[in-house]
Each structure stands twice: as structure tokens, then as C-alpha cells.
Design goal:
- Helix content is 32%, strand content 37%.
- It is an alpha+beta fold and 231 residues long.
- The radius of gyration is 30 Å and the shape is globular.
Length: 231
């Protein structure tokens, strides 16, 4: 009887030991699998975004950046586009986006949506000469890869009856009472305007070697790179 009890006790001890071992092994396997999945996700994310937070989508390289805001006001009689370019140029802003603009104009020259590279721009422009409220102003601007600031702006205007007109800003947008503009400077990017063979127009580029080198240089000088700025 004692021998049977001892044998049974041994089997129970072995069974308990195996159960305890399983309780330790299974969580370890789960933790190991979780760690592996986390590492794989981290690597995939690094591959997708890169060290600079840039991400490839097909052949287009997109970018992300810290931002710094600028706000200024244009006085009556100033020309909106040239004043904006001058502001960006004087401050050496490599890349910026229009956050908002509120104000009014007495004239504007706009290129309409019917334009393309195969026909003269003059065939698709409208010269507007009346008082307008600025409903919206959107676009990008910056010194980018050259010495002179460039921009790409679209504007929407409302006339005295509330009718809207909008298009690509060519120029001659003369301020009536005010134009209050807010820009965000994208400190880790550099906008380069380069001819796009598909459209025939100079388009903003984020992916050329020149733009990436400029962006890395701008980021490094701004102290935002944390040792990972080199292209």
C-alpha cells in the first residue's frame, strides 16, 4: 500500500511539475512571439518612413517635418503674390505652406482650369478688376533649391453679390483693405520647383537628390536631426 501510495504520489508530483513548467513556457512563447512581431513592425515602419520620417509611395517621396509659424499683414495697395515671395525670400524660408489668409482685393489675374502646357497661358487667364473678399488662399512657397523664392498659389474670391471665382494666382492681386497671412515653415523640408515632363509645368518636388540634400542640411543646421540627418 505504501509503495502504491508512493508511486501515485510520484506521478502526481511529476504531473504537477509538468503543469508548472507549461505555465512558465507558454507565457514565454507568447512574449517571444509578441517581441518578434513588435520588432518586425518596427523594421517595417523604419523601412516605410526612413530615418527622416520620409515615406515612399510608389515613385513619389513624401515628407514630414516640424513646423514654425509666421504671421504678417499686407497693407492697402500691396501686390499679394510679390509681397509673399519677398517675405519668404528675406527670411530664407526653404519651404512653407499657406495656413490661412483673410482680406480683400481690388484686382486679380488668375489662370483658369482649362490651361495646359500645349496652349499659351494668355488664352486661359482672367483679369478681374473689382472689389473682392478673399475667401481662401492655399499653396506652397519657399526658396527651395535656388536663390529666388517661388510659389504655387490658388485663390478663391467673392464679389459684391457673393459669387465665387477662383484659379491659379498669376499676379496683380492688389490689396484693398488688408491681407492677413499665416504661414507654416516646414523646417526639415526643402521645396524644389522642377519641370515635370508629364504636365509640362514646374511642379514642387520632394524627391530629387538636390531637395533631399538641402532638407538634410536645413534640418542639421536647425538642430532637429538628433544625429539622423544624413541623406
Amino acid at each position: 500500500g505504501a509503495a502504491v501510495a508512493s508511486a501515485v504520489g510520484g506521478e502526481v508530483s511529476v504531473a504537477l511539475g509538468l503543469a508548472a513548467g507549461a505555465m512558465l513556457i507558454v507565457p514565454a512563447i507568447v512574449l517571444s512571439a509578441f517581441a518578434g512581431a513588435s520588432a518586425a513592425f518596427s523594421l517595417a515602419r523604419r523601412g516605410r518612413h526612413g530615418r527622416h520620417g520620409r515615406r515612399r509611395s510608389g515613385s513619389v517621396l513624401q515628407g514630414r517635418s516640424h513646423g514654425r509659424f509666421w504671421a504678417f499683414r499686407l497693407a492697402p495697395g500691396e501686390e499679394l503674390k510679390s509681397a509673399l515671395l519677398r517675405y519668404v525670400q528675406e527670411r530664407g524660408i526653404r519651404s512653407a505652406a499657406i495656413v490661412t489668409c483673410v482680406g480683400s482685393l481690388t484686382s486679380a489675374k488668375l489662370r483658369m482650369a482649362s490651361a495646359d502646357a500645349s496652349t499659351p497661358n494668355s488664352d486661359h487667364t482672367k483679369q478681374l478688376s473689382e472689389r473682392f473678399e478673399i475667401v481662401s488662399l492655399v499653396g506652397t512657397a519657399g526658396v527651395g533649391g535656388g536663390d529666388m523664392a517661388t510659389c504655387h498659389l490658388h485663390i478663391s474670391l467673392s464679389d459684391k453679390d457673393g459669387r465665387l471665382v477662383g484659379g491659379h494666382v498669376v499676379g496683380e492681386c492688389v490689396v484693398f483693405t488688408t491681407a492677413e497671412i499665416v504661414l507654416v515653415e516646414l523646417e526639415q523640408l526643402a521645396f524644389c520647383r522642377e519641370r515635370d515632363e508629364a504636365t509640362g509645368y514646374p511642379e514642387t518636388s520632394y524627391s530629387s537628390g538636390r531637395c533631399l540634400a538641402l532638407a538634410a542640411n536645413v534640418t542639421e543646421r536647425s538642430g532637429l536631426c538628433h544625429g539622423a540627418c544624413k541623406v
